[in-house]
Design brief:
The complex is a heterodimer of chains A (about 270) and B (about 300).
Chain A: H1 7-30, H2 33-53, H3 57-75, H4 81-102, H5 107-115, H6 123-142, H7 144-152, H8 154-159, H9 164-186, H10 191-205, H11 209-234, H12 238-269
Chain B: H1 2-11, H2 14-18, H3 20-45, H4 49-69, H5 73-90, H6 96-125, H7 130-136, H8 147-173, H9 175-180, H10 185-226, H11 230-258, H12 266-281, H13 292-305
Helix pairs in contact in B: 3-8, 3-10, 3-11, 4-5, 4-6, 4-7, 4-10, 5-6, 5-10, 7-10, 8-10, 8-13, 10-11, 10-12, 11-12
Classes of the chains: A mainly alpha (about 270), B mainly alpha (about 300).
């Protein structure tokens, strides 16, 4: 499990978990689950298109995810956000279906892109993924307060003269970068589980944002490491374990919230 | 006139009209589009686009499982979509933000199961194309044996909506008023999700998971940008859905001539047409004020009261 060819895998998984944990906190706080599901799923044909044109798949993923962000923000001006998200998702997937139909040699890589693949991470991949992931975390740290304010109250953000739409665009752009980083490891369908499960559990344990972000990163690290170890042992796909652990964490989070509410009720009656 | 007739004749290849797979695609694709468009109007009005998409994705776990167990795929899709619908409704949530989160968690659970089943499919049956078939579907490869059960499922879904028309409309426009009038909002919600599950699994089995979301949300969103009343929105959505699907099938058939050797996927054409129509509908007179959604909702309230 810790052989030399697995070292890059563990490093990449760690980067992915840190990024997903940070960004996931805001996904949950801002209620952006659908966007967090739609961007990875819509972006995954970008990797197939990139290999068709012979460029770096990471670049293809970033371009496709950014196209999705632009579409969501542009269509979302006058429409319910989720309708805009759904239409952008199907449009990206439709173009992806066209690319995939051009050649049949990607059927195996489609499966890997959808459900995750941890082997065969080269040093070059590691460097580019770390760079994009680092940029992502840096943006979250720099914009921590405005992002959080936007999630708590749009009016408060308006009072601070920061247009809510611009913050939405920035947030979705960060989400797009995080998507591009984590997609190849966890798989398009389950990036979302890695973002939401740990963050939910973290939010139920701590109401202080800084603390919750750190907890969320911690949970995400445990999820990814455990998923890779289990996948190594059982030979089942990584995505399955990430998804299952995400659901378990969410369940524990809800249970934790209930316990906290009950205990606070007890305190107040005493 | 003659020139137009010749153009039209060259667009529709005689072999297109004679081909049996095309007949199946037109019947099943049209049926799926009709049913999803009708239910999609309620789904968009209730703000449950994410739930609709999630049900389709989760039902793919059922499709993968049926491949593994050797049972009918339609049964697999149906059971899984119904389970997901019940799961979403059982976790009692009032705030919209939390509801999205629960939808997402159910989706994550379903997808991880799908990942496992597809993996087992690939290793035990060496069906590497399973993931692509489930996701993207293949309109021209629908087996003829599926037509009757698929149409039955579609009819069941439409019947459910017809029976629920008024309470469903009222509960999605004004839940409080519906509760006062004795409409079970939760029951209506659950039945709506069941109708949605039926429609979505019909779509997923026939046209793939992407197209099912496109056909559910697209025509309804276009129609709601144009129509003033719920009834006309439903009719318009159904019309748009069916026409767009047939146009997509025709264009995909014609595309065999554009790039010799292989055709372009139906889903690409359907999705592109829907997207273009949606953007165009934004310029419909009166839409620039942005008050359309509220007008149809007040109108619906008045009709349901009267």
């Amino acid at each position: 499990m810790f052989a030399s060819f697995m070292i890059n895998t563990w490093l990449v998984a760690t980067v992915v978990a840190v990024v997903a944990g940070c960004v996931g906190f805001f996904v949950v706080a801002r209620g952006a689950s659908f966007a967090a599901h739609a961007l990875p799923l819509g972006a995954f044909p970008g990797a197939a298109a990139a290999s068709l044109f012979g460029v770096d798949p990471l670049l293809g993923l970033i371009v496709a995810a950014c196209a999705g962000v632009v579409g969501i923000v542009w269509l979302g001006r006058r429409e319910r956000h989720e309708v805009a998200t759904a239409l952008c998702l199907v449009m990206l997937l439709g173009v992806g279906a066209l690319f995939l139909s051009m050649t049949s040699q990607y059927s195996q890589s489609v499966y890997a892109l959808l459900f995750g693949e941890v082997l065969g991470v080269s040093d070059r991949d590691l460097v580019s993924i770390s760079a994009v992931g680092g940029a992502c975390v840096l943006l979250v740290v720099l914009l921590f307060r405005p992002l959080l304010l936007g999630s708590v109250s749009a009016e408060l953000l308006g009072a601070q003269r920061l247009a809510g739409r611009h913050m939405e665009l920035v947030f979705l752009a960060i989400l797009a970068l995080a998507t591009a980083v984590s997609l190849p490891v966890v798989g398009a369908l389950l990036v979302f589980s890695l973002m939401v499960g740990p963050a939910c559990a973290a939010r139920s344990l701590s109401s202080r944002p800084g603390c919750a972000v750190l907890l969320s990163v911690g949970f995400a690290l445990v999820t990814v490491w455990a998923a890779i170890a289990l996948s190594w042992e059982s030979d089942w796909p990584v995505g399955f374990f990430v998804g299952a652990l995400g659901v378990i964490l969410y369940g524990l989070g809800r249970f934790g919230t209930r316990v906290r509410i009950l205990s606070s009720l007890d305190d107040s009656t005493c | 006139m003659t020139i137009m007739r010749i153009r039209f004749a060259s667009l529709i290849d005689p072999a297109f009209v004679a081909s049996a797979p095309v007949h199946t695609a037109i019947v099943v694709g049209g049926g799926a589009a009709l049913v999803s468009a009708v239910i999609g109007v309620f789904t968009v009005m209730r703000g449950q686009s994410f739930a609709g998409h999630a049900l389709a994705d989760v039902s793919s776990a059922g499709g993968a499982a049926s491949l593994l167990l050797g049972i009918s795929p339609l049964a697999g899709f149906l059971v899984m979509a119904a389970l997901a619908g019940v799961g979403m409704e059982l976790v009692q949530i009032r705030r919209a933000r939390e509801r999205d989160l629960v939808t997402g968690v159910v989706l994550g659970a379903g997808l991880s199961v799908a990942a496992l089943f597809l993996y087992l499919d690939v290793t035990s049956h060496s069906t590497t194309g399973a993931a692509i078939t489930v996701m993207f579907g293949s309109m021209f490869a629908i087996p003829a044996s599926i037509v009757a059960p698929a149409l039955a499922v579609g009819a069941g879904s439409l019947l459910l909506v017809a029976l629920l028309y008024r309470p469903l409309l009222l509960s999605c426009v004004d839940p409080e008023l519906a509760a006062v009038q004795g409409v079970g909002v939760r029951v209506a919600g659950l039945l709506h999700l069941m109708a949605l599950a039926l429609a979505v699994s019909l779509c997923a089995i026939t046209v793939g998971a992407i197209l099912s979301t496109a056909l559910l949300i697209g025509p309804a969103a276009i129609a709601l940008r144009v129509a003033k009343r719920p009834g006309s929105a439903i009719l318009l959505a159904a019309l748009i859905g069916v026409l767009v699907t047939w146009a997509g099938i025709l264009l995909a058939w014609d595309s065999y001539d554009w790039t010799p050797g292989h055709g372009w996927p139906v889903s690409f054409f359907v999705v592109t047409l829907i997207f273009m129509l949606y953007v165009a509908a934004g310029w419909w007179p009166g839409n620039l004020s942005g008050a359309r959604g509220t007008r149809i909702e007040t109108d619906a309230r008045r009709r349901s009261e009267g």
